[in-house]
Amino acid sequence: MSLVPLRDDLVPFLKSYLPSNEEQRPGLKPFVTLTYAQSMDSRISKGKGVRTVISHLETKTMTHYLRFHHDGILIGVGTALADDPGLNCKWSPVDKIADMQCSPRPIILDPQCKWRYEGSKLQELAAQNLGKPPVVVVNKLPAWTTKAKAVTYVEAPVGPDGKFDWLPLFLLLKRQFQLNSIMVEGGAVVINELLSRPDIVDSIIVTIGAKYLGIQGVEVSPPAGEIEMDDVAWWKGSKDAVVAARLHRT
Ligand SMILES: NC(=O)c1ccc[n+]([C@@H]2O[C@H](COP(=O)([O-])OP(=O)(O)OC[C@H]3O[C@@H](n4cnc5c(N)ncnc54)[C@H](O)[C@@H]3O)[C@@H](O)[C@H]2O)c1
Ligand SMILES: Nc1nc(=O)c(N)c(NC[C@H](O)[C@H](O)[C@H](O)COP(=O)(O)O)[nH]1
């Protein structure tokens, strides 16, 4: 389905929260934007593994506008398995065609190699030149990965909790794939961890949809407790609101 036009007032609203093109910051981490859509009761889906539409068409277009402005788009394997997402960019300025070049590089955090490229939406879009093939971050390369030539598998160490360490991970992604800006689109495990990392997250852009998803829904709520925000700005659409902010750095 094609997108509705981008609301004009979203452009100035988002401007100061987007990565700047000039900023290369060699040796430093990439610019990281944490973005997702939540219900009124802070849920990002109806249930674990259930793909759920929360955004209005206006804010769906905004998500593609955000994708246009980032070099990479990162998700956890839970989202890859639940949503089979495309992660490409369908928005482009009027003088450009939205093709593979406009799209960010998908990055999937999959320490235990649960996701398969074959048969995925990512494979379908890459085959049509409508999206870039992904980088999959694993703990240890399984033997079969060599068959899927379009996918780049990267090994990264995990800690005792089975997780990659965020800062070395983002540094690796910038160094190895020249990704100067990365938007993180979820899911809950990834979002809940990064909400407590003002040292990593540069901007946070959250769509709030006018619906409740209920107690069975997948919740976003930082386990670390209260989180302060700075430079908070609100946009109001015909049905959704968007809050843009920075996580407070002490
Ligand atoms: N509304 C939205 O904006 C939105 C966005 C994305 C996903 N979702 C929904 O969220 C749900 C999926 O969320 P989830 O929490 O199950 O999945 P997730 O996408 O956060 O993936 C979790 C998994 O990713 C891997 N992972 C995450 N962080 C890691 C790290 N630091 N190191 C190593 N591995 C790491 C682990 O294997 C972990 O189990 C789905 O229902 C999906 O529809 C909604
Ligand atoms: N902005 C936003 N609004 C929503 O209502 C919703 N459910 C998501 N969810 C984000 C999640 O990462 C999805 O998997 C991708 O948004 C799917 O991406 P595609 O459209 O297939 O490219 N994101």
From TrEMBL:
It catalyses: 2,5-diamino-6-(1-D-ribitylamino)pyrimidin-4(3H)-one 5'-phosphate + NAD(+) = 2,5-diamino-6-(1-D-ribosylamino)pyrimidin-4(3H)-one 5'-phosphate + NADH + H(+); 2,5-diamino-6-(1-D-ribitylamino)pyrimidin-4(3H)-one 5'-phosphate + NADP(+) = 2,5-diamino-6-(1-D-ribosylamino)pyrimidin-4(3H)-one 5'-phosphate + NADPH + H(+). One of its GO terms (biological process) is riboflavin biosynthetic process. Pathway: Cofactor biosynthesis; riboflavin biosynthesis. One of its GO terms (molecular function) is 5-amino-6-(5-phosphoribosylamino)uracil reductase activity. The keyword DNA-binding does not apply. It holds the Pfam family RibD_C. The keyword NADP applies. Residues 30-242 form the Bacterial bifunctional deaminase-reductase C-terminal domain. Keywords: NADP, Oxidoreductase, Riboflavin biosynthesis. SUPFAM superfamilies: Dihydrofolate reductase-like (SSF53597). InterPro entries: DHFR-like_dom_sf, RibDG_C, Riboflavin_Biosynth_HTPR. Its EC number is 1.1.1.302. Belongs to the HTP reductase family. Catalyzes an early step in riboflavin biosynthesis, the NADPH-dependent reduction of the ribose side chain of 2,5-diamino-6-ribosylamino-4(3H)-pyrimidinone 5'-phosphate, yielding 2,5-diamino-6-ribitylamino-4(3H)-pyrimidinone 5'-phosphate. This is 2,5-diamino-6-ribosylamino-4(3H)-pyrimidinone 5'-phosphate reductase. It comes from Lachancea lanzarotensis.
